[in-house]
Amino acid sequence: MDEDYPGMEELVAFHGHLCPGLAIGYRATVAGLERLGVDRARDEELVAIVENDSCSADAVQFLAGTTFGKGNFIFRDFGKQVFTFARRDDNRAVRVALKPEALPQPSAQTSDWRQEKIDYILNAPMEDLFDVQDEEIEIPPTAEIRKSVLCDNCGEPVMETRTVVRDGRTICLDCLGSPAR
């Protein structure tokens, strides 16, 4: 990969392939981190909120150093190529949204249309791709280790906060939604 895209080779290895979605996530993450003046998170000091579960979300996790396990990678299922990055140290946040007109549609589905789209995304001026706005958000708290209890139905350990007590029995949300268990 080209040195113009730091971390892209490792990102592709992490994700498994290079595609337009990964390129969108790459550029959106770069835009967000640059606007906030931060690098990849070492721990929980940076929060990323993604509004889709496409390939672009993998780029955010990998480049921003945000993960579900650390509690600083949040998924909101809105189906939008929108990414919010926030700093916990000063409560600053930035929202990076793909512009509706950002990706010109190919006039014909040629064999290399996919690569043309990737090349365009990686090389277009940032302002042609994204609306980048400072944002005020409620930054979620840092990750919390919660007590585990046993589900009285399936016997599996589950976070106490993800259970319901019914008729004196502690039931996990999975069993609550699956009466066959």
Descriptive report:
This protein is an alpha+beta fold and 181 residues long. It folds into 2 domains: 8-135, 60s Ribosomal Protein L30, Chain: A, CATH 3.30.1330.130; 148-177, Wheat Germ Agglutinin (Isolectin 2), domain 1, CATH 3.30.60. The protein has 6 helices and 9 strands, in the order ααβαβββααβββββα. The protein is globular and about 60 Å long. The termini are far apart. The mean pLDDT is 91.
Helix/strand-derived category reads alpha+beta
Number of helices: 6
Average of pLDDT: 91
Number of domains: 2
Q: Unreliable stretches, pLDDT < 50, 5 or more residues? A: none
Sum up the overall morphology in one term.
Answer: globular
Major β-sheet profile: 5 strands, mixed
Number of strands: 9
Rg over C-alpha atoms, rounded to the nearest angstrom: 20 Å
Distance between the termini: 49 Å
Which CATH architecture of the largest domain is right? Answer: 2-Layer Sandwich
Helix content: 25-40%
Strand order within the widest beta sheet: 2-1-3-4-5
Q: Give me the strand/helix succession.
A: HHEHEEEHHEEEEEH
- What CATH calls the topology of the largest domain is 60s Ribosomal Protein L30, Chain: A
Instruction: Assess the beta-strand content as a share of residues.
Output: 15-25%
**What's the CATH class label of the largest domain?**
Alpha Beta
